[in-house]
Structures are given as structure tokens and as C-alpha cells.
Design the sequence.
């Protein structure tokens, strides 16, 4: 088999609800068992169910939620004949995507593997609410913030990617001389009638001092309300730092033949252990 480079990223959340609902959710997660069949739940146009491969630990459980679209046709294309066939399926069958989570049922901490099209936090809230027969507005998962962004940037061995997104300012002359290249990109976006522009800078070893200077310049414009700064993410070998939203995350690049649930579970456990210094502030008791 061909090995493929895979990027894995996860975010961390704290369960926010009344003590009674927190206790009910924690007990539900704690008692997940492969012996117990869990019914699917249909929310809007998708159906969701917990795949029977969860792994329980003393304080947390690893689980996968499948998101299934039973309405859409399954199409198979032949690139040689350039013909397309629609596969016959039952009404209960459809294409699925899997989203993996780690839930610490002792402290109400959730770790979500990020990925396009996977079960998101809002969908997870609705799924849990269905299982407990409560309104989904009575529970929430709040993002846990990273309070050590600049410190972690200083500790990075090397930075290979920088991504930032800005809302387009009305005054194109507001930029300092040392960021005129950004202004050129904004001028182009203005001509295309865009609302924002996202830039990516890539290199073997980007200058950390220059990144901090750029952040200071962009932040000053943001603080003066001259321009919206929506994102400034810094990528290292096994680290992503977001200096704007300060989302606590964990990031890793893997070279694997197949991205299995076991590999993703190992990644989530590694994230949980590695970020424990940040998460320990959310311990209960």
C-alpha cells in the first residue's frame, strides 16, 4: 500500500450545563458499552450513531460518531469509460463520515478531532440531547483557550507555515511600509469585491521575530478598529498556535498507509496527555 501524509488536529472543550445535566452526560458517557446497542438519531437531513468500537479508560472514553446521509444517491464513476452508475441501496443506507472524540467524564472535558464534513460540536450537542431527552440548548461545549501563545512560539524549534486572515479595511493606505506586500493582496481582493483575504506563507524555517512583528502590526490595526483580524495561525512540526482566537489545540503530521480509528484514538490520547498542564485548571474537585 502507498503511505500518505496525514495532518491531524484537535480542539479542546469544557462541558457547560447545570450540575444535574453534567452528571447525566458524564454517567451516559461513562457507561458506554459494546454490549449495549445504541439507536441512531436523525437530525435534519443526517443520521448519527456511535460506532461499536469505543475504548474506555479510568477517567475517559474514546468514541466515534458516524454521520450518514441516507437521502443522497451513491454514485460510482469509471474514469476509463467515463460513465457513472448509481448504486442501489436500501432506505437506511448511505455514505458516512466518522468523527472521533475523547470525553473525560470525570472533568467534563471533550477533545474533538477536526475535519471537514465530520460531526461538529453543534451536531454532537443535539445527538447527546436526543439520547438524554433534554433540550440541546441546555448544554454547551465551550472552547478551552490557549493562554501561552507567544511563550509557545518562543519555544518552537522551527516554524514552517504562517496563515492569517483579515477583513478588508476601507483605507488601503493604513499599512506600514514593511507590510506593503499585504496591501497589494488587499488591493486585489478589493477589485474582486471580496470581504476578506487569507494569506499563507510557507518556508523551511520562518523567522519568528518577523512573525511577532507582523502580529504586533496587525493587532494594532485590529485594536484601532481599522481592520478585522480573524486568524493568525503558526504551524510548527507538531504544534499550531492561534494568536487571535487562542484556541487550545494539538496538531501532528503522520505518515501512514491507512488512517484507522485506532491511530486517531492514539492521537487523541496523546493530545490529552500532552496538553494536561493546560487542562488541569478545569479539573473537578
Sequence:
Amino acid at each position: 500500500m502507498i503511505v500518505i501524509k496525514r495532518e491531524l488536529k484537535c480542539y479542546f472543550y469544557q462541558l457547560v450545563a447545570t450540575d444535574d445535566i453534567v452528571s447525566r452526560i458524564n454517567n451516559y458517557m461513562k457507561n458506554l458499552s459494546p454490549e449495549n446497542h445504541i439507536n441512531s438519531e436523525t437530525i435534519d437531513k443526517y443520521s448519527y450513531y456511535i460506532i461499536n468500537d469505543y475504548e474506555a479508560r479510568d477517567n475517559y472514553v474514546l468514541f466515534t460518531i458516524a454521520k450518514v446521509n441516507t437521502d443522497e444517491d451513491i454514485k460510482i464513476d469509471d474514469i476509463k469509460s467515463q460513465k457513472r452508475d448509481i448504486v442501489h441501496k436500501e432506505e437506511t443506507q448511505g455514505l458516512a463520515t466518522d468523527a472521533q472524540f475523547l470525553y473525560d467524564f470525570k472533568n467534563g472535558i471533550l477533545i474533538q478531532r477536526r475535519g471537514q464534513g465530520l460531526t461538529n460540536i453543534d451536531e454532537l450537542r443535539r445527538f447527546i440531547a436526543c439520547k438524554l431527552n433534554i433540550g440541546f440548548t441546555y448544554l454547551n461545549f465551550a472552547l478551552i483557550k490557549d493562554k501561552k501563545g507567544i511563550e509557545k512560539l518562543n519555544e518552537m524549534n522551527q516554524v514552517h507555515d504562517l496563515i492569517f486572515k483579515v477583513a478588508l479595511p476601507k483605507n488601503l493606505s493604513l499599512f506600514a511600509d514593511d507590510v506593503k506586500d499585504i496591501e497589494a493582496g488587499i488591493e486585489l481582493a478589493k477589485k474582486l469585491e471580496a470581504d476578506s483575504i487569507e494569506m499563507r506563507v510557507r518556508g523551511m524555517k520562518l523567522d519568528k521575530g518577523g512573525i511577532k512583528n507582523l502580529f504586533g502590526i496587525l493587532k494594532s490595526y485590529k485594536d484601532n478598529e481599522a481592520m478585522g483580524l480573524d486568524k493568525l495561525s503558526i504551524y510548527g512540526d507538531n504544534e499550531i498556535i492561534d494568536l487571535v482566537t487562542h484556541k487550545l489545540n494539538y496538531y501532528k503530521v503522520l505518515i501512514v498507509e491507512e488512517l484507522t480509528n485506532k491511530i486517531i484514538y492514539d492521537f487523541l490520547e496523546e493530545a490529552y496527555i500532552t496538553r494536561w498542564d493546560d487542562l488541569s485548571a478545569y479539573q473537578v474537585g
User: Anything to note?
Assistant: The chain has seven helices and 15 strands. The CA atoms of residues 59 and 267 lie 17 Å apart. The chain has two domains: 4-144+248-282, 149-242. The radius of gyration is 22 Å.
